[in-house]
Amino acid sequence: MPLDANVVANELITRGQRDDVSIDPMKLQKLLYLAHGWHLAFLDSPLIGQEIEAWKYGPVIPPVYREFKEFKGGAITRFAPVSADDIPPSDDQKGLIEAVWNRYREKSGIFLSMLTHEPGSAWEITRRESPWFSPVIPNELIREEFARKRAAGRA
What are the DSSP calls for 47-88, one per residue? Predict the structure, then answer.
C-alpha cells in the first residue's frame, strides 16, 4: 500500500541524522522521486500515494515541497508532521528506502537533479509534452524509466 510522502520523507531525514548527512529540500525531493521510481521498478507498486508533478526544475511532490520550503537551500532540521492513521513502512519498503539512501546519500541535490533530467526520463517526457504548467508525471512513465535503468544495470 502506498505511503504518505511525508512518512517516507521522515524515513530519509532519520537516515540523514543517523549518518550525519545533510538533506536540503531539493535533495529530499530527488531522493523521494528516486525511491518511488525504484519501488515501481522492483516491487511493481507505488511507494508514495501523492502525485509527482513535473515542475520546471524537476519532479516535485507538492505537499513535501510546502512542508519544507522554509529551509530553502539549507539543511532540514525537523520532521514532517504525520497522522497517527498513516501506515508505517513495511519491511520491504524500509529495505528499499535504505538501499536508495545507501546509493545516493553522498550525492548533492544538484547531482540528483541531473539524474532526474536525463533525456528520456519521465520528467523530461512530461515537460516536453506539457511545457507550460506542472503536469502530473504518470507512474507508468516513472516505472518505465526505472525499468530501463534496471535493465541497463543502473540499479
Answer: SBSS--EEETTEEE-HHHHHHHGGGTTSPP-SPPP--TTSPP
For each of the chain's 155 residues, which pLDDT tens digit applies?
A: 899 999 999 999 999 999 999 999 999 999 999 999 999 999 999 999 999 999 988 999 999 999 999 999 999 999 999 998 899 999 999 999 999 999 999 999 999 999 999 999 999 999 999 877 889 999 999 999 999 999 998 87
The C-alpha angle 28, 136, 1, rounded to 5 degrees, equals 65
- Indicate the SS3 state at residue 24: coil
Q: Could you give the C-alpha distances from 18 to 21, 65, 90, 97, in angstroms and in order?
A: 8, 23, 20, 14
How many domains is the chain partitioned into structurally?
A: 1
Instruction: Yes or no: say if 26 and 109 are a contact pair by the CB < 8 Å rule.
Output: yes
Are 146 and 40 in contact, with CB atoms under 8 Å apart?
A: yes
Is the pTM here over 0.85, yes or no? yes
